[in-house]
Amino acid sequence: MTSETDWGGAPSVLRMILGKQLEELRNRAGLTYEQAAMAIGVSHSTIRRMESAKVARLRLADAEKLLQIYGVKDQQEIDTFLKSVREANKRGWWHTYRDVLPDWFAAYLSLEQAALQIRAYEAQFVHGLLQTEAYARALLGAGNPHAPEEATERRVALRMQRQELLSRPNPPRVWIVMDETVLRWPVGGPEVMRAQVDHLIALNALPHVTVQIMPFSNGPHPAMRAGAFHLFRFRARELPDIVYLSGLVGAVYLDKADDVLVYREALDRLGAQSTPASRTEALLGAIRKEL
């Protein structure tokens, strides 16, 4: 069962881990959804939702009853599981930004905060974890032109708080490949872009951050039809790698092995075809002189 140190700390991700553990325990006990549901007085769809982490919170009483009917007798295991349920039911820090945070993006933040490794391809703008405050403000203002200034500032604050994971103890391994287009878009004007490039150079020097650029001169590449995408890997053995694809009004999360493999291989090829990370500083420096 899960411990306090193997999942990363994001509530909805912990619910995913607990759900998979409940599924494993139910299967080991030889019970169907219907039998488990009847034993605790809920519908079979509730059991399915619990196992797939599609419930807003896990009821402590339901979890305890399920452990009993699944044959878990070790009290320490039970106590650890129930403690994890309590943790999973807490709200993430981003809940305070719910006034400017779409529901579908809250799931992304949970994945990002819990990840052991974050890999991504960005086709149009600097990854949110790597943006300066001025760049984020200009970008978010352009993306939400009718939003009140206060709402924009709230979104900027949320983005800056996300970045705190880069400086926390045991930060995730972050590897971002960006199309050269990203650095040619005049977001916020030359001064903002120069500061953003300087920030990328500084971040690329961190041992847990890798920034690579896909130059125009390389021509077509493996992600030219895909647009931006993100791949998360976690410490917890129960969790598969997850791919995140975003849109204007929602997002898609992929966790089937065959689907994830396509994106992982695309990232591998992108990394191989992009400028090596050891030359990123020189390339960024050359681009900065043109800004």
TrEMBL record:
Taxonomy, superkingdom: Bacteria
Listed Gene3D superfamilies: lambda repressor-like DNA-binding domains (1.10.260.40)
Pfam families for this protein: DUF5753, HTH_31
InterPro entries attached to this UniProt entry: Cro/C1-type_HTH (IPR001387), DUF5753 (IPR043917), Lambda_DNA-bd_dom_sf (IPR010982)
Segments forming domain HTH cro/C1-type: 22-78
Protein name as annotated: Helix-turn-helix domain-containing protein
Organism of derivation: Streptomyces ureilyticus
Source lineage: Bacteria, Bacillati, Actinomycetota, Actinomycetes, Kitasatosporales
